[in-house]
Amino acid sequence: MHEEIKEGSILVLKKGHPCGENKWQITSFGTICKIKCLGCERIVIIDRTDLKKRIKKVIQ
Ligand SMILES: [Zn+2]
């Protein structure tokens, strides 16, 4: 259902970061992923299955 995502993909998640931004870039894509908030550049570690459930839109 989702478009393909990979390292470098920019995503909009269902829930934004507390800083107010809602776009994230995948900096590491594996069983465990790292995503970087494009507002404050903070990195969040997230399980890939969880990440896929939270995607609202794939931007690129
Ligand atoms: Zn942020």
Present the secondary structure layout:
Layout: E1 10-13, E2 23-28, E3 32-37, E4 43-47, H1 48-54, E5 55-58
Antiparallel strand pairs: 1-2, 1-5, 2-3, 3-4
Bound molecules: zinc ion (ZN).
Describe it:
It is built from one helix and five strands; from the N terminus they run ββββαβ. The relative contact order is 0.31. It is globular, with a radius of gyration of 10 Å. The mean pLDDT is 94. The chain is mainly beta and 60 residues long. The two termini are 16 Å apart. Strand 2 and strand 3 (32-37) form a beta hairpin. The chain has one helix at 48-54, and strands at residues 10-13, 23-28, 32-37, 43-47, 55-58. The chain has a five-stranded antiparallel beta sheet with strand order 4-3-2-1-5, with helices on one face. The chain has one domain. The longest helix has 7 residues, at 48-54. The structure holds zinc ion.
Total helical segments: 1
Please compute the radius of gyration using only Cα atoms: 10 Å
Ligand inventory reads: zinc ion
> Which sheet architecture does the biggest sheet show?
5 strands, antiparallel
Mean pLDDT: 94
Tell me, briefly, the overall form.
Answer: globular
Structural class: mainly beta
Order of helices and strands: EEEEHE
Helical proportion? 10-25%
Q: Report the span from N to C terminus.
A: 16 Å
Strand order, largest beta sheet: 4-3-2-1-5
Estimated share of beta-strand residues: 35-45%
Number of strands: 5
Low-confidence stretches: none
Q: Count up the domains.
A: 1
